Amino acid sequence: MPFKPDAALWRVLLSKCVYHVNMDIAWRTSDRLLEINPMDDSAYVILANAYASTGRWDDAREVWKRMKDKKVRKEGGKSWIEGLGEVHVFLADDRRHERTDEIYSKLAELMEEIEKLGYVPILAEMLHEVEEKEKKKALWYHSEKLALTFGLLNGTVPSGKLCGL
């Protein structure tokens, strides 16, 4: 290579190793990424999720332990939507919004409706060893769903245009 690889390049390589299910190289690639930035939560998260997706739970736990031992915290994902003249930010299972009760009520209504239409959550995509009920709850209350539901309540998102819910 005509240049020294930076963290972004190692992160791309790590993601490609995961995509091609080459876990030995993924481990080494994550180490290289962590040499550049030992606090890079993405290196741990990508690798742990890759192990979990291949059923290698002991290896996934080892990565999470390594992350915890180094006191690295995973930054949670956020979703935001502009409505009523301001930007509203949501985290997964977020209960801080002033209209939380209304948002959760509407979201429960929407989820029940799409289940009647045949929606079945793909619980295998949840890469944590938790009960099925907890996986379903985590999928229901994703930050994206909360933001979209808020948008629907405010007329920000045109009805009939929701594909991601």
Automatic annotation (TrEMBL):
Pfam families: DYW_deaminase, E_motif
Ranges: PPR repeats: 40-74
InterPro entries assigned to the protein according to its UniProt record, in alphabetical order: DYW_dom (IPR032867), E_motif (IPR046848), PPR_At4g14850-like_plant (IPR046960), PPR_rpt (IPR002885), TPR-like_helical_dom_sf (IPR011990)
Entry keyword Repeat: yes
Keyword vocabulary terms for this entry: Repeat
Domain DYW: 118-155
Matching NCBIfam families: PPR
Similarity comment: Belongs to the PPR family. PCMP-H subfamily.
Name of this chain's protein: DYW domain-containing protein
Lineage: Eukaryota, Viridiplantae, Streptophyta, Embryophyta, Tracheophyta
